Every structure is written in structure tokens, then in C-alpha cells.
């Protein structure tokens, strides 16, 4: 059987193909000379499978799509406080190249607009790197997100640098407020190099999938940046990634995203997939026209809006049954799936409503594949209260999903590998 996914992607591409509205990025001459008809879309799953349709191996410059990744590198390299001291996280509702600062703090409003991104570039790597070393740090980091060594397009870089009046104005403003402490021109040069890194739609899908996969590149297995950094980056992408179209995007598409003026667009759906598209004609916000249409269609067809999630809590209790009879009867609560706070609350309700008459109570976690911190604490508290009510409590946990369970304060629990081991304990 052939996979259905590439066929679906090809069909979605076809549905947007005839739209030739929008303009190439005119302010960078080399980009204005690009082939406007290129069109591609790709998915990369958190397991590293890539599906695509159209021009997914054509390279183009990453431009502003570098911003969330380089923000991640700066947060990983310097820590949160020094970066947040210099760059805010508030949506600006302004164009990407607005010359503006937060009036109260004097910081650029967020790392997705140029003022923030130019500052963030200067915050990558160790403080004492020279500009060349800093660019190398950035290219190396972007390459780790892509899972292969990325190169730079020197022509696009030179072309943008020769016309970088606006970014230079921004950098000089930043320097005059001491947000930048390095030479303004050198930082713009480094930032422009960062924007000139060549990627394909396939690369961008993998880079987005690395964000979707909590910072671990699904192809190379490398943990590129720590998990808390990824949460920060995805949050900022969600609120600021599409500039002055961010609100429309958040409601219509609902996927943390970032666009670039060469026509690339990425979306990262936490825990699921990275998506990327390429189509060079841009709307008035500087976002790819057909890219936006593609994402709208994908999100609607596939239910990808992050605010639209299945009610996983309801399915957490798979069964609640009695095994055996008489004084040896066991009460078995069989749980399943991923358990977060709402799922744990469901288990509490089940335990309270059952108020098991049986002496021995088993929580069977065999079919649980993840349990977050708050859910683990709630489960252990259930164990503790059951113990205090006079029950003998067992945790069936063959894969140590709750390692070293300690219900504390009078709670007791016996960990076993299967329900059978409770019925007939090994001698
Ligand atoms: N939105 C973008 O992709 C802008 C990136 C471009 N290098 C700039 O700084 O103007």
C-alpha cells in the first residue's frame, strides 16, 4: 500500500497553486529575482518521518525563520535572565522591521521582530566571541536543528547587506540605548548572515519537528536545546511569529509559526509534527501568500489547532473491576494513555466513587505511556489515602513509569510487574 499522506499533500498543493497574488520581497534585490512559482510543503513527524509534495528540496534563504531558532540558542547559551533583560516577549502588532522599543523598559518588544532578533543574535554563544565566531555558533546551531550542515548564500547576504539601511537604523537605535553593546554594523552583518543560511522545505520541516519534539532532533537524536527553552520559543512563536497578522493566525490556524521573506513558513505542533512550506510571493505583512493558505487548509482538514485537543482525561480509566472473590478479591483500576492533571483528577473521582470494599487495591499502569509531574503526585496521594483507609495498595508498573514511588506520610505501595503477581505472589 502507498502512504496516503503524500497524496493528500499533493492535493492540498494543487488547491493553492493557481493563486499568484502577492509580491516578491522587493527590498532585497537578490530575493526579488527569485522564481516566484516555486511551491512545496512538507511534514516531519517527531519520529523523523518526512512527507512532502512539490519543491521540497529546492534551497532558499531562511530569513526570519532563523529568529525562533537563534532565540533558542541564545536562551540555551546565556540562560533566560540575561536574554529577557534585553528582549521582551510582548506581541508588537507592528511590522517586522518597525523601528520601535518598549517605552517603559527600552527593550525591543519581542525576538520575532528585527529589533529583537538583531539583539538576540548578539546574545548567542559566549560573550567574548568575535563576530565571525558568533556567526559560526549560529550556523552550527541552525545545522543541529536541521540535522545536517547548512551553508550560507553569500550573494543574498551581500545583496541584503548592501541595502540594510533599515536594519542598520534599528541597530544604531539599539546601540544608543545600550541594548546592543557591540558594534552596530558588525551585529547587523552577523544577523544578515544568519538570515542568509540556505535551507530546503524538508530541512525546515525537520527543524520545526525538533521544536515539536521538545528540542530533540528526530533524525539525529541530538537534544539541541533544553525543554524549557522550547516552551519559551513556541510560546513566543504563537503570539508573535506572524508579526501584525499574529492574532488572525492564532485564531485561524492556531499553530506556533514563523515566516521568512524568502517565502518559507514553518509551524511546530507540540508532540506531533513540524510543518514547512515554500512559496515566495508575500502578502503585505511579509508572509507567504500560498503558505498561509496551505496552513489554513492543513489546520482545518487535520484538526491541528493547538486549542482543539481531544478530551484525553475521559479515557484515562480503562476499566474498574474486581478480580477474584472473598477476602482475596482485588479491586483493579486499569489506567491508560498519557496522564496529565485532568486525567489524574478523573482517577481520583473514580477512586472516591468506588470507595473499594476490597482490602487489596491495584492501580494498573501497564497501558500508561506518560504521566506528568502533577499527575504522579496526585496518584501517589491516592495511594497514601487508600493506605490510611486500611487498604493494601499495589502499583502494576512494568516499565517504571513512576520510578521509586513514595506516597510519603503513612502511605505504602508495592510495585509489581503484572496483576497476576498480586493474585499469586511469587514465592
Ligand atoms: N521577515 C523577514 O524574513 C526579514 C528578514 C530579513 N533578513 C530582514 O531582516 O529584513
From TrEMBL:
Keyword Acetylation belongs to the record: yes
Binding site residues for substrate: 64, 114, 160, 167, 191, 243, 261
Tagged with keyword Acetylation: yes
InterPro entries in the cross-refs: Beta-lactam/transpept-like, Glutaminase, STAS_dom, STAS_dom_sf
The protein's Enzyme Commission number: 3.5.1.2
Annotated STAS domain residues: 332-402
EC class of the enzyme, as a word: hydrolase
PANTHER family associated with the record: GLUTAMINASE (PTHR12544:SF29)
Quaternary assembly: Homotetramer.
HAMAP family named in the record: Glutaminase
Family: Belongs to the glutaminase family.
Protein name (database record): Glutaminase
Lineage summary: Bacteria, Bacillati, Actinomycetota, Actinomycetes, Kitasatosporales
